[in-house]
Amino acid sequence: MSNEPSILHHSVRTALDDASIRYEAIPCREEWADTAEFCAHYGVPVADACNAILVALKVTPRQYVACLVRADTKIDVNHRLAAEVGTKRLSFASPAEAAEVSGQSIGGVSLVGLPANIPVLVDSRVLERDSIIIGGGNRTSKVRLAPGELEKLPVVRVAEIAVPR
User: Fold this and answer.
1) Whether the Cβ atoms of residue 144 and residue 131 lie closer than 8 Å to each other
2) Which of 63, 126, 132, 150 has minimal CB crowding within 10 Å?
3) What confidence tens digit (pLDDT) does each residue in 68-95 have?
4) Cα dist from 95 to 23, 99, 107, whole Å
């Protein structure tokens, strides 16, 4: 199913394989893991690179939603995302919080392999691409896949949550 699945974070690899998702594991130099550097150094179009962003709902107990957006867009937190989750009390999780909740490394956090209680919203623009790049759960790998493969994950829902940058 992939060229070197062992380079992925174990939770990402396990979730991909358990959902029978077809993917390619791509090695990445740690210093080029952030989206802009990755695209520049590996020749990946920005529209094909996707960012997983953990958003905290300001409720008790604290809840989260993971969002996947293309790198050429940004989450519309105050309108579109708020409408999708039913509250305007939202904030981006801090890097430390995102790493703790996901169990993954900042710069490589993936929507795949998150705890089962975290719903995932994939922006509809992501599905417009032939293939996308998502995090591998660490700073030394990425995953290339057809975006429709993400719909095999039980926690994924497609929604319009982003706007162009």
Assistant:
1) yes
2) 63
3) 999 999 999 999 999 999 999 999 999 9
4) 26, 6, 9
